[in-house]
Amino acid sequence: MAKIKHHNFLNTVHEVFTDAKQAGVLHLYAGGKSFSGRTIKVNGMDLFHFGTTGYLGLEQDTRLKIAAIEAIKKYGTQFPLSKSYISNPLYEELENYIRIMYGHPIVITKNSTLGHLGVIPSAVDDNDVIILDHQVHWSVQNAAKMLKTRSVPIEMIRHNNLDMLEDKIKKYQHSKRHIWYMADGIYSMYGDYAPVKELMTLSQKYPQLHFYFDDVHGMSWTGKNGTGYVLDQLKELPENVLLFGTLSKTFGASGAVLACSNPKLYDKIKTFGGPLTFSAQLEPASVAAAIASAQIHLSPEIYKLQRELRERIAYFNACLSATELPLIDQNESPVFYIGTGMPKTGYNFVNRLMDKGYYVNLGIFPAVPVKNTGVRITISRHNEKAEIKGLVEAMEHHFPLALEDTQTNPERVFHAFKLEHKTQNEPQVSTELTIEIFDTIHQVDKIMWNKYMGGEGVYDWEGLKFLEAAFQGNAQKEHNWSFRYVIIKDSKGIPVLITFVTLSLWKDDMLAQAEISAAMERERKENPYHLTSMVLSLGCLFTEGDHLYWDKSHKISDTAREDLLELLEKMEHQLGAKMTVLRDFEAESSWNQALYGHGFLRVQMPDSCTVDLTGIDTMENYMEQLSSRNRRHYRKDIQPFFELVQSEIISKADVFQIQEFKRLFGEVQQRNLGLNTFSFPDQLFEHMNDNEHWEFIVLAPKGKPKTILGVMFCYTNQNAAYVPAFVGMDYVLLETFSTYRQLLYWTIERAIELDIPKIDFGMTASFEKRKLGAMVHEKYAYLQTSDNFILEMIGVMEGQH
Fold first, then answer.
1. 62-297: which CATH number, 3.40.50.300, 3.30.200.20, 3.40.640.10, 1.10.1510.10?
2. Boundaries of each Aminotransferase class I/classII large domain copy (predicted)?
3. Which of 82, 118, 196, 267 has the greatest CB tally within 10 Å of its CB?
4. pLDDT in tens, 489-511
């Protein structure tokens, strides 16, 4: 499989959001001429509001509203001047109140995103390292990435994994001045907590460990003076902790706040902090509202408000405990998450709840893994017990209906979130379709397989027999692949869908930039299996092409597709795979919507190349039908080298030649870090040499047949397709003899000589192949992962190396 184009994260997010927007659950507009907080008008319907982050309801407090109005009357809508020069008249009063709340020096920022951009580059020195919890808020990750330009290493650990954190600390404890661990206090999707006390214990063991907590979702509803979850756990703010809170969300106003007990570090941040220096200051109305809220926070009233919210949270927890709804994390925060698994189930569930009068948030990628879609429910003081109970009753009723509508079941949802499910439903068995699963091609009818799946790539019946033999019984685990063949037939025994999948070990950075893979390969010198995972893939890493026969004209083709996707999900669990990859789809595939609905992300692959030789009987005829530009390329860049080289077709190589073939292939494979795969087993080349369907196009300097410049490894698929599966080349002499272009030319000539009507040229070097007349086809793959860790870790590493 060739190098996959670097994943464009923004394009993928756009596609996912567009899908959700079309389902009517994202990018909505609230209606109405006023807003109470308890209800929200959406699409003309008044819905009970369970999506706010204003947990205490202070944004509707009359005191905050009056203060904001009076400030506008006195000072205008804004104070248009950098705060570095002069602050508006209300700022000093606000800063004094917030300082009293925290008991430490504070910095007020326009919002938390700009605050992180200002504080992190100021706080972290060039000789420091940053370690991110992979669920820490995007705004923290984005600010941390700015330090790549200063060569500050950025690492990532799995969510709340203290063992992994300690391993990273040990890696840097003797080389870095400070080790910064960055995390949320309360995580915004699942409502779970950072293990603050355990982290403080770890810092006693490693004195250079520092912490940067974003506690905006823990603010106001808990802690002394409403200063949040983290400070409530710490009691006192240590000098190795920077703590971010918010003046928006639950605080009811606008802005954010940094608390710092280290005087030197505080002065450094306060004096010059990028956006802290140059950004516009908070508007007078926001400052005045924040002052009114701070006065509440500094009064006994804050504890009354917190208690009222806790009562509602406890009531919601009690109502949920009487159901079998998949609550992802049970705790005392105001954030709850009910899993739906597939995005299309989430869309259906959200729409059903809105139809019954309840507004909840959709949890979708990139905030959560796509297959961990669900609904985020937030409880606030606006909510009354009657509507809390009503929401739970509506969810209990409509959750199974949403599953039924989207052809899924509770077991699949609970599996997706690694939750136990006590009630086991009987599996739904379709009477219209029969699913056959085989673990070797020898169990599959040869004529039937070749009729539907033969004719391209190395996966006709004989090709798969060859692959099974080559990738089994090897000493190293990465060289042993498990094959599964899936045939779905209708009631008359006619195939509706046929495919094969493999389970194999992939490097997690296989699709990453070459620089990232180079860095990971340095780690793998100590641990060869560092960041590797078992992957369930359509086809295999050796094959390219349309790995799927699907009769879309069949009346139950959609049912067959659903059955396959559910089967792959079960296989992933049974075989212990961490990712499922469906490959080689056209740009306008009719599978696109279904795969998004099932939690797959689309990434663009390199263009695929084929050559049509229909009606071509000589190489001269082939060259004549090329464009004038491509004929010039041939005369300039290929023909002049004919006198320097000789080509030979070898069907049975000797021992020396096989060793050279291995060496030359190794040169290519080691340089292709853009597609960072494990090597192939040695026995692959011996099996190839013993198989009548394989031959080698060998290029050597004229008169020196033992000096092999390059070799093309070619497979003949039923005389219907000629498949140059991969190449080996001597890179020292590559340009001297124009080796690669020569091999492409001789491959085309060989296919014409064999009277084979098509060449499957694969996905590498499409630019060079196009110049020799290849047709180029846009291809896509779909990925489904159990979590976002690898995607986010690779995103963090990009640009560091």
1. 3.40.640.10
2. 50-391
3. 118
4. 999 999 999 999 999 999 988 86
